Amino acid sequence: MRSRAHVRNRFVLIGDIALTIASVLGSFALRLDVGELPYYFPAVLLMCAVALLIKIPTYYFFGLYRRLWIYASTGELRLITVAVTTASVLTSGIMAILIVTGNVLPGMPRSALGIDWLFSLVLIGGSRFALRILAEQSMTLRANGKTKRVLVIGAGDAGALVVRELQKSAQLNLTPVGFLDDDPAKSGKVIHGLRVFGGNGDLSTVCTQHEIDEIVISSMKMTEERVEEVLRTCSERQIKVKRMRITIEAVGEQDLQDFSS
Description:
Layout: H1 2-31, H2 41-61, H3 74-101, H4 111-143, E1 148-153, H5 157-168, E2 174-180, E3 190-191, E4 194-195, H6 203-209, E5 214-217, H7 224-236, E6 240-244, E7 256-258
Parallel strand pairs: 1-2, 1-5, 5-6
Antiparallel strand pairs: 3-4, 6-7
Helix pairs in contact: 1-2, 1-4, 2-3, 3-4
């Protein structure tokens, strides 16, 4: 698994080289008229060289090639922003020195440096999250037709955690369909792309309408009496019931207590 991750990150590195060059070219193209581009071609080449020498090592320093981007989240988005901004500031600093102290870049538009930062942020960040989207779609296609449909009882933090892990872990062969929650404020809302169908009293109807195969009880606040009601309802329909044993960290098959035989 680790070697495969390294192979994937090598392709990410190659992609970053291409995107860095595209960002520089785009910044000049957006700032200048088409007829002016040949005049600034030496400046474009020099900035491409500086950007590659500065940005790629900076991205490596910030760990952008040591991550599995199929699990990218808001934390990775912040990291990308910091890494790209740092790299762009360093690149702009070097280019500013060359502009001020040398005659190699006569009349170069300084605004291209700021545009390059914006393009880099969009391209580098967008490519990472595109990898995540493609990976999730690929896992869904591989598992299509082979998975069990899961309804999660409890639309709080624990329930959202269960759904995210099931969505990312196709090997579990469990496809989350939606939530039930007794909080009326959550009814009809969407969490991780799944709808909160209603309260726990709608369990029988929802299971029938959405052909539910398994139930996961994520709520830690459910009384034992309510759990027994869920078990009786599911037993009549031969639906397996599981319950979370933890509320933090990743949730896998080992983290769900099986109530059914």
